[in-house]
Write a structure and sequence with these properties.
Helix content is 4%, strand content 48%. The chain is mostly beta strands. It has three domains: 241 residues, Glycoside hydrolase family 11/12, catalytic domain (Jelly Rolls, Sandwich), CATH 2.60.120; 87 residues, Sandwich (Immunoglobulin-like); 98 residues, Sandwich (Immunoglobulin-like). Strands 2, 3, 6, 7, 8, 10, 11, 12, 13, 14 and 16 form an eleven-stranded mixed sheet that branches. Strands 1-4-5-17-9-15 form a six-stranded antiparallel sheet. Strand 20 and strand 21 form a beta hairpin. InterPro entries: CBD2, FN3_dom, GH12. It comes from Nonomuraea guangzhouensis.
């Protein structure tokens, strides 16, 4: 069963690229062996990642910058087939854990005019030995996410498989798409995982992204307001894997061109209704002339004189920020984003100081481990309940991570980590709880392989 990819730490060359300092000239095809090594190719049009996220065994890939693609030249994996695979060596376009390729136009909203023009193709070679699948991985998020874990949907398109392995979840039907017949599987690992397993194996595929996404939406597993963030093709090996190869990969925006024009800057930002734990923002709408359409707004917040950070998004010209600290000064800016992920200049700044006192009501937090595997787990739901007699506006849950554990994604809460202490704060939509009312959030974490500990000491305020 497949879980999220480990956070990629790019190699020395890739780090410079990700920082946007300068472009690296073409070089000889590298061989990368580090667990989280990745390299940009063809002027950063694509990124190839080794991505050993589920094991500590050796794996090396020979990167082909011309095709583009890669070959697994060494793989010593031997994972049980009833658990997660060892890795996902792959090539991708778009944004994945703070690594973004150039010219992809991603993230792109799936109801944008250009989304129907997005196509991808792949040609693969398979060895006769080992246990593995050959699959696309298409990632979707409710927000135009460029880093961190996607929380919307993960579509896997299995071209081929060898051995007694199966996707996450259970089969829910069959469908004819992209020139083949596919068995459809559905599961949830903190986000929806929809897998399309071809009933007759193929070594190549060429399709429009919306071919599979439209089917996923029709089944109720995704929404047209979500964003495509990356298009990836590669392999999930459980046993062996040497000889697996992507001979050629492409991602194109044919027919619609690429929108490179940012929206206009939002104006007239104001704040009103400030309480001890929240405030309401409003502004004048931006406009977009680039063709991909206005997708929404990023809300950026700074505490005191600190740096601005994005704390939420909105598809309207208003936003309710909550979970703030009493008697604290905050500054806000808003920027517009279009369907091709072009962003405007930040708006003017508005400052607010929250009132003294709390939001009222007591609080409890109860956590359930939904799923766990060798080196990770999903905690969902964490149920937050107002145990007091007054309405509560804003809540904070703290808990302790065992040593060596790392939070890799979260949903329905904003998480910050200091040492082993994690602080979860409500989002705008779930901060107000009536007496006896409750809401939920969840998170995913990684841990040393074989460690069975989970977080403890959940406290709520």
């Amino acid at each position: 069963m497949r879980r999220m990819h480990i956070h990629l730490i790019i190699t020395a060359i890739g780090s410079i690229l990700a920082a946007g300092l300068f472009a690296v000239p073409a070089q000889a095809a590298p061989v990368i062996c580090g667990k989280v090594d990745s390299v940009g190719i063809q002027g950063d049009k694509y990124i190839v990642q080794n991505n050993i996220w589920g094991a500590d065994t050796a794996q090396c890939i020979d990167v082909n910058q011309t095709a583009p693609g890669f070959t697994v030249t060494q793989a010593a994996h031997n994972k049980p087939t009833n658990g997660a695979p060892a890795s996902y060596p792959s090539i991708f376009a778009g944004c994945h854990y703070a690594l973004c390729t150039t010219g992809s136009g991603l993230p792109m909203r799936t109801n944008a005019s250009g989304f129907g023009n997005l196509r991808t193709s792949v040609s693969m070679s398979y060895p006769s030995a080992g246990i593995w699948d050959a699959a696309y991985d298409l990632w979707f998020d409710p927000t135009p996410r460029t880093d961190g874990q996607n929380t919307g949907a993960e579509i896997m398109v299995w071209l081929n498989k060898q051995g007694s392995i199966q996707p996450v979840g259970s089969p829910v039907g069959t469908v004819s798409l992209a020139g083949g017949t596919w068995q459809v599987w559905f599961g949830n690992t903190g986000w929806n995982v929809i897998s399309y397993v071809r009933t007759s194996a193929t070594s190549s595929l060429d399709f429009a992204i919306d071919t599979f996404y439209a089917d996923t939406v029709s089944r109720g597993y995704a929404q047209r307001s979500w964003y495509l963030t990356s298009v990836q093709a590669g392999f999930e090996p459980w046993v062996g894997g040497t000889g697996l190869a992507v001979n050629a990969f492409s991602y194109t925006t044919s027919g619609g061109g690429t929108d490179t024009t940012p929206p206009t800057t939002p104006s007239g930002l104001t704040a009103s209704g400030t309480t001890s734990s929240g405030t309401n923002l409003s502004w004048t709408a931006a406009t977009d002339s680039g063709g991909s359409g206005l997708a929404g707004y990023d809300i950026m917040r700074a505490t005191g004189t600190g740096a601005f950070a994005t704390v939420g998004t909105s598809t309207t010209t208003s936003y309710a920020d909550s979970g703030l600290t009493p008697s604290t000064t905050y500054r806000y800016q808003v920027r517009a984003r279009d369907g091709a992920n072009n962003v405007s200049q930040p708006s003017g700044t508005v400052s607010v100081t929250t009132l003294s006192g709390g939001g009222g009501g007591g609080c409890s937090a109860v956590a359930t481990v939904q799923n766990a595997w060798g080196n990770g787990y999903v905690v969902q739901p964490v149920t937050v309940t107002n145990t007091g007699t007054a309405a509560k506006s804003g809540w904070t849950v703290t808990f302790t991570l065992p040593a060596g554990h790392t939070v890799t994604g979260s949903w329905n809460a904003s998480l910050t980590v200091s040492g082993q202490t994690v602080t979860a704060r409500n989002l705008a939509h779930n901060g107000t709880l009536s007496p006896g009312g409750s809401t939920t959030f969840g998170f995913q974490a990684s841990r040393p392989d074989g460690n069975t500990q989970v977080p403890s000491g959940y406290g709520c305020a």
